[in-house]
Please model this.
Amino acid sequence: MAEDGIARARRLLETPQSRGGAASALAAAALAASAAVLMAGVMVLGPGVRFDEPAAAQPLFPNG
Model:
């Protein structure tokens, strides 16, 4: 009985092995980087920036 308790305690003290942490860490880093770039773009452009519509393109041959 005591040996069973010791073996159980040793199993509880072992560190669990992590699996697949690299892919999820890379995805989280990519998400954070894209959010940072979007927030920086909003701060650089600011609320007063306006993009006007370009004029309609003229055809190369006026007669069609």
